[in-house]
Amino acid sequence: MEPLVVLEGLTIRAPSRLLVQDVSLEVQARRVTALVGPSGAGKSLTARAAMGVLDVEPGLERGSLRYPALGPDDWFRGVAGGGPRAQRRLLVATRHLRGAYVSYSPQAASSALNPARTIGRQLQLAIGRRAQAPSALAGEIRALLAEVGLGPEVAHALPGELSGGMAQRAALAIAIAPQPRLVIADEPETGLDPVLRRAVVELLVTVCRTHHAGLLLISHHQSTVDRIADDVVTLPPPPGAGEAP
Amino acid sequence: MKARTVQADAPPVVTVQGLVKTFRRAGRWPWSPHREVPAVQGVDLRVAPGEVVALVGQSGSGKTTVSRIVLGLEDPTAGAVLLEGQPWSELPEAARRPRRVHYQYVPQDAMGALDPQQTALEHIVETLVVLGGCPRGEAGPRAQAMLERLGLGARLHALPRELSGGEQRRVTLARVLALDPRLVVADEPTSGLDPDRRESVLEALIGNLPPGAGCILVTHDMSEARGWCHRVLAMLAGRVIEEVDLSVAEPVHPYARILFDPWSAPVPRGPLATTGCPFRPDCPLAVGDLAARCAAEVPTLRTVGPAAHRHRVACHALSADRPSSPAPAAP
Hints:
The structure holds 2 protein chains of 2 kinds. By secondary structure, chain A is an alpha/beta fold. Chain A has helices spanning 43-49, 83-93, 109-112, 119-127, 137-147, 164-176, 194-210, 222-228, and strands at residues 5-13, 18-27, 32-36, 59-66, 102-105, 182-186, 214-218, 231-234. Chain B is of the alpha/beta class. The chains are: A alpha/beta, B alpha/beta.
């Protein structure tokens, strides 16, 4: 089967130092690729680059990004070494993919959700990214919530009314609502207690498997990675590692 | 860090007896009836001079409430807190205020606890002058010495936003430690930090506690409890379900074991039971003849293993059926 994303030789530079050096990874459907490494190693930058999001300057130096399941194009062609303008062009060109082909489950779910919109409305917007609209929207929202273990009443709740674990589940429901082929989860366990941590990670993997999606998981917890990852990509510590802000 | 000497025979820094706290929450609408939320349902706790005690448990298990009541930031519904053998929780605020400087709190959100317009050094100086009663001339060098001890010597004049997460935490620690506290309550001082930075923050806190000071560490991270604490209290639904010194024994309560190794058993599906043992619905031990007892009776902490280990667990299946000894003095 074609991989969902192939990132090769990714090298990203900040004015004073290299942030990411020669990182390659690939994610297959129904499989979990874990991205691990110490803080400052560029895990989040790498995951964002895999979605076509590059926002440091001067930025991408080398590398290629392909979505073989979609086509043979190298999205980084002409961007590498092109500076911020080229990166912004890439951002626009890949916009239709984010929240449709690839979706993102954020680190601090409770602060990443829109505080002024109910979970149901946010799910509705996410479902709107699908190629084909579902026949019954309300039923679809209920089904998504049930899949992540939330009751239908959560659709009427604002993010502020949810506990940390529920917010993380809601964020996951929103991430899978567009039926993406690839889910990128950036430390979904942050701030959760150990039992919830396991529950959320297990749920993430189960949901991705049932939807035939691939999962790129950033994690700090070796025990999590050992249990669920099919492939592990380890980033080296940043060169001249001090305490980066 | 276990090198810290615990004065087990000295009078405890903290004594908590039968602590109960019920919050009254407003209903959804102003005219809806109030809901009673039981947060803590009978907790006993002692912290000896020099001892570091971890409170662990899932979100909502009451760890933060206990730690806030110990410091007098909340008033208990029932039960009492004694600090250094003196009454504390029943005193009026005016009587508590002069003593508060000895009992310090390390917040979870360091950035929110720092003044965005003060440098690291100014934070400590201000604290020493206002709370510590230290003359301004003396406060400067003392503050600087404390920051240097915590490895912030090069960052004295940095503003909070110029500091990394770990450095911000260490400023909040320096501020607490500069006051020579006799008790430090730290509420998840490492939350949100990367695991590789957590060690250094804990080392800064526990390595620099004044000798004889007690410390309560609220944490989600079991490796912290293992590496840095003399005793661990695992909480569930407002009660302590197990008290264990990890250097001599491993947790035995089925729920405590899940806390320590979440992958060791199926995730509890919840919800917790409201009568009897709260963990009953997911408990592999609440079967057979025991099931009725687990459903009817809330288990109390009883000693398991050698008495010297001071290992206590609240489980009908695990503790021998004998009357619990009258609250043995904790180490």
